[in-house]
Amino acid sequence: MSTDAELAELVGRRPDPRLGGEHVNRLPESVGRPAPPPRDPRRGAITALGATLTGATLVGGIVMIALGLLTGAGWPVPALGALLVATHWGWVHVAEITANSLESSCHRELLAGNGRWLDRVEPYARFSVRTEVGEDGSILIERIAHHPTPVGADRFSFAVEIETRELRSGEEPSAAVAERAELMRRQAAADTERERTRYEAAADAYRLAALESEDEQQRRAAVRAASQALSDQINANLREPPLVE
């Protein structure tokens, strides 16, 4: 169970964008997965072109180095060849960046929807139970925990931990194994609900404090504006000549 201090550190944070991509496997299964964008048919051609240019640049660079050394053409030719050899892998990165840019532009709405979906994931711990059947017929029951962890100044991710492992023999009655797995699942669901309730209580307190702070700031701003207006009026009156009867 996360401590109150850990909850306070997580309240108000948004999910790390990498949870929708390279770190998607850190997301708890219960929250689902973002919709994967369809693969752009041009990616294959762009990747192939990048590979071709990479090979051509490498071969061309080696040829230029050899010609420069064998024919005595001077240092510019082998130097250019060495530059081509040293930078030939750049075409692979150019092709990858180009393909990613095209897919991003084509699937902008889908990616924006995935971003909105990800922002709805809240930073509280989730617990789940999974089973795996071994080759000998044994059944492994694991309890998995996804603990939210701070990332940077205002983001969070999840750390995945296997909390317990229970190996049940294949000779054990299936009803007993199923009952044990179901009991662990109910406990995991109860623990998740407890963490959700604790987080929501902390989030409500955070929002209330933020509103109160905002109201106080507005009140102070209003008082300051009123005081400034009064001061301006007093200064204007002081600059005017006194009335003469």
Tell how many strands the DSSP assignment holds: 4
Structural class: alpha+beta
Shape summary: flat
Q: What is the strand content?
A: 15-25%
Q: Determine the number of helices (DSSP H or I, runs of at least 4 residues).
A: 6
Mean pLDDT: 80
N- to C-terminal distance: 81 Å
> Could you estimate the helical fraction of the residues in percent?
55-70%
Low-confidence stretches: none
**Cα-based radius of gyration, to the nearest Å:** 32 Å
Main beta-sheet annotation: 4 strands, mixed
Brief summary of the model shown:
The protein is of the alpha+beta class and 245 residues long.
List its salient traits:
about 15% strand; about 60% helix; four-stranded mixed sheet; flat
